[in-house]
Automatic annotation (TrEMBL):
Its EC number is 5.6.2.1. The active site is at Y312 (o-(5'-phospho-dna)-tyrosine intermediate). This is DNA topoisomerase 1. Belongs to the type IA topoisomerase family. Keywords: DNA-binding, Isomerase, Magnesium, Metal-binding, Topoisomerase. Residues 1-125 form the Toprim domain. It comes from Deinococcus cellulosilyticus (strain DSM 18568 / NBRC 106333 / KACC 11606 / 5516J-15). Residues 173-178 are annotated as: Interaction with DNA. The record marks H31, R150, R151, D154, Y159, W166, R314, R505 as: Interaction with DNA. One of its GO terms (molecular function) is DNA binding. It comes from the Bacteria. Residues 140-573 form the Topo IA-type catalytic domain. NCBIfam families: topA_bact. PANTHER family: DNA TOPOISOMERASE, DNA TOPOISOMERASE, TYPE IA, CORE.
Length: 775
């Protein structure tokens, strides 16, 4: 029996039917091992190690310690049993770095004694599965190293920096890519806050022929439009701000006099079809046309992939295989019109220099694409709608260009100029099959009649409109993904998780299809950009992704990459040490427009507060940051329920006191209270947190010595790997073994005490605690 292991159970039936007898297909249900979430997940012997909280021994070549996923225990046991019966094991996890890593982890758990091969496919069809069987390969350890490097970097960044945010509120976290994505959303919100809306006037004239012409020049001066004002409302040079009185005067003239056609310009244009879908473009179109979120797009695409309808959906390559190209051209010829096909197939290449995925674009699977009629019968409504989008986009990518003529009419009334534009398609080409959606409406123009230069055109109606410049549009989910992708930040397999993380932490909220930053998100980005600017830099983050690509291609080693990220100049460990040496500082993220009004925004226990004139109130969750104007703020302060602003808490940030016996001594407040760090050794302090800012080097050393003597180790008992200590505190002597403790009976002779006796005392004490009634 040959054992084939895939990631998702949804693939088992389909792949099993293509493999036939002699094969058993089983699923790993995703990752089977990962870094420990907390040190208690480690075996007890490792929990006291300096690296236990991280799960990575940074001083031992960044050795990660992996633990099995507790939720996968039953499935792992099933795979172990199947592997013992197998004559060969084929690791058929997904065809990307994560899939390669899952295969490697399976290998570490199963420890097979039979031949093991990697089986790779990008679509679930009979021909693809048979081809994969004929092209088995060993595990690609460079891909595994790239995934492990990414996991280590994400863990180090998240676990080292996140605790610094906890003074703002619980559960706050930072992430290597998620924080950069959040920065994009926050910066857009701040741009909107700083934006000064500016009024401008426009004049439209509806003509007797049914088209509308707009006033573009008043007394031969170009009339200002919204694009002629900067974000502060300043008018750019060369544009004239039309007043309402001037517009009304021209409108009055048009009631008496016609417009005269001065120019009739026509230019041919060509539109090329959009490329086949990559992950981000599929997400964007599914949002525009189907109303899908990024997560829903990926969930539905996963089902289509597992059902054998489309190729693998995590890709940043728009290229089609020969099979995909031929399938698309055949479908156009059979189901639409052969005349829509160009003489030669179209070839697409990625515009993204950092594109990592080797497989092709998202397209219908197989040599012969499943028809829309067949899909309608087989699929759910959401699955069909997404398949139709992918099907038509793929076919359109192989169709001929659309061609037409762009026409612009210039009409005048004395020295006032009006323009009207229109577009005519002579050949719809690919547009017969598919028209790409737009986030912002583009004017296609109007149907313009045949006219002669000098023709008089009567105006039926004029419209003088008061307009306002608009702030930069907020991101939609797909537009944010596209922006990240263009910047070389993140990868197709990570985008959905990034958005989920920053939303679940309360850093962003969504309103209909748009995303906006919360005050908590603004505060987090302000802190990180001030204290760790390099790690929030777009170019730096993109370069890190590029270096991961180099590891995947075998051009760079994992250890070199991690050393540079963590230990070298500008590395995380260096930056953290610099941060800890700085005096505690309050981060003020209040926008200038509110500061100028004497107002302040702050975060207390994760809740945004507005303060001013000696009063503080909560900011409603429904109030977006750019909607908090000074006027709205004063209204809130006048009507909201007053809250108390807590006194600044003792900071967990370390303060360097000096040196003792050649070692640096620093003082801080951690999860379990104040502590002193002497060199690499941590010592507990028995003092209230409020006293920490006032301690001197001499006093801190005295307190540390007093605290350590109270818990002094009087004797240590060992048996094999087991270790039990006899200690003393203010209550007397007690036994300590890991997390287990027990009081030592009075009169016990330490000289005669054995390891077994101490172990029995601890067990008795633990059993007694379990039997003790609660409540």
């Amino acid at each position: 029996m040959k054992l084939v292991i895939v990631e998702s159970p949804g693939k088992i039936k389909k792949i099993g039917s293509y493999l036939g007898n002699g094969y058993v297909v089983a699923a790993s249900f995703g990752h089977v091992r990962d870094l420990p979430a907390k040190k208690d997940d480690l075996p007890e012997k490792y929990r006291t190690e300096a690296w236990a909280n991280l799960g990575i021994d940074v001083h031992n070549k960044f050795r990660p310690y992996y633990v099995r996923s507790s939720s996968k225990s039953a499935q792992i046991q099933k795979l172990l049993e199947l592997s013992r019966k197998a004559t060969e094991i084929l690791l058929a996890t997904d065809a990307d770095r994560e899939g390669e890593a899952i295969s490697w982890h399976l290998l570490q758990i199963l420890k097979p004694t039979v031949p093991v091969h990697r089986m790779v496919f990008y679509e679930i069809t009979q021909s693809a599965i048979q081809q994969a069987l004929q092209n088995l390969r060993p595990l690609d350890l460079s891909l595994v190293a790239a995934q492990e490097s990414r996991r280590c970097v994400d863990r180090l960044y998240g676990y080292e920096i996140s605790p610094l945010l906890w003074k703002m509120g619980p559960r706050l976290s930072a992430g290597r890519v998620q924080s950069v994505a959040l920065r994009m959303v926050v910066e857009r919100e701040l741009e909107r806050i700083q934006f000064v809306p500016t009024a401008f006037i426009s004049l439209d004239a509806l003509t007797e022929h049914g088209f509308t012409a707009r006033l573009t020049h008043h007394h031969n001066q170009r009339v200002a439009t919204g694009k002629d004002f900067d974000s502060k409302g300043k008018l750019k040079e060369g544009a004239y701000p039309l007043s309402k009185e001037e517009a009304d005067a021209v409108a009055a003239q048009l009631k008496k006099h016609p417009l005269l056609l001065q120019k009739d310009e026509e230019k041919p244009f060509t539109q090329k079809p959009p490329a086949p879908f990559i992950t981000s473009s599929m997400q964007q179109e599914a949002s525009r046309k189907l109303g899908f979120s990024v997560k829903k797009s990926m969930d539905v695409a996963q089902k289509l992939y597992e059902a054998g309808y489309i190729t693998y959906m995590r890709t940043d390559s728009p290229s089609l295989s020969d099979e995909g190209t031929q399938g698309a051209r055949a479908a156009v010829a059979q189901h639409y019109d052969p005349r829509l096909l160009p003489a030669n197939p179209r070839v697409y290449a990625s515009k993204n220099q950092n594109a990592q995925e080797a497989h092709e674009a998202i397209r219908p699977s197989g040599k012969v694409f499943k028809t829309l009629q067949q899909a309608k019968k087989d699929l759910s409504d959401d699955e069909y709608r997404l398949y139709e989008l992918i099907y038509k986009r793929t076919l359109a990518s192989q169709a001929i260009d659309a061609q037409g003529r762009q026409r612009v009419l210039t009409l005048n009334l004395e020295d006032h100029l009006f323009t009207a534009s229109g577009k005519t398609y002579d050949e719809l080409g690919f547009r017969t099959l598919y028209v790409e959606g737009k986030d912002e409406q583009e004017e296609e123009g109007e149907k313009l009649p045949p006219m002669q230069i000098g023709d008089a055109v009567k105006v039926k109606k004029t419209t003088v409109k008061n307009n306002k410049t608009q702030p930069p549009a907020r991101y939609t989910e797909p537009r944010l993904v596209q922006t990240l992708e263009k910047a070389g930040i993140g990868r197709p397999s990570t985008y959905a998780a990034i958005l989920t993380n920053i939303e679940s932490r309360g850093y962003i909220q969504r309103t209909k299809n748009t995303l906006h930053a919360t005050w908590l998100g603004v505060a987090v980005v302000k802190f990180l950009t001030e204290k760790f600017p390099r790690f929030l830099d777009y170019a730096f983050t993109a370069e890190m992704e590029k270096q991961l690509d180099d590891i995947a291609e075998g051009k760079r080693t994992r250890l070199d990459y991690l050393n540079q990220f963590y230990f070298e100049a500008g590395g995380l460990a260096v930056e953290l040490e610099t941060y800890r040496r700085q005096p505690p500082a309050d981060i003020d993220f209040t926008p200038e427009i509110l500061k100028e009004a004497g107002l302040r925004v702050r975060i207390q226990e994760g809740i945004p507060l507005l303060s001013g004139s000696g009063k503080a109130v909560k900011i409603p969750d429904t109030l977006k940051p750019d909607d908090l104007t000074p006027e709205k703020a004063l209204e809130l302060l006048g009507s909201g329920e007053t809250v108390t602003i807590a006194a600044p808490a003792a900071t967990s940030q370390r303060r360097v006191l000096g040196t003792h016996e050649g070692q640096e001594v620093s003082l801080g407040v951690g999860k379990y209270g104040p502590y002193l760090k002497v060199g690499e050794e941590f010592r507990k302090l028995k003092v209230h947190s409020s006293a920490v800012p006032h301690l001197t080097l001499e006093k801190a050393l005295q307190l540390a010595e007093a605290a350590s003597s109270e818990n002094a180790v009087l004797k240590e008992l060992k048996s094999g790997r087991g270790k039990i200590q006899v200690r003393r505190n203010e209550r007397g002597m007690y036994l300590a073994s890991g997390r287990h403790f027990a009081p030592l009976p009075e009169g016990t002779s330490l000289d005669a005490l054995t390891y077994q006796q101490a172990s029995d005392l601890i067990k008795q004490h633990q059993e007694g605690r379990k039997k003790r009634p609660r409540g």
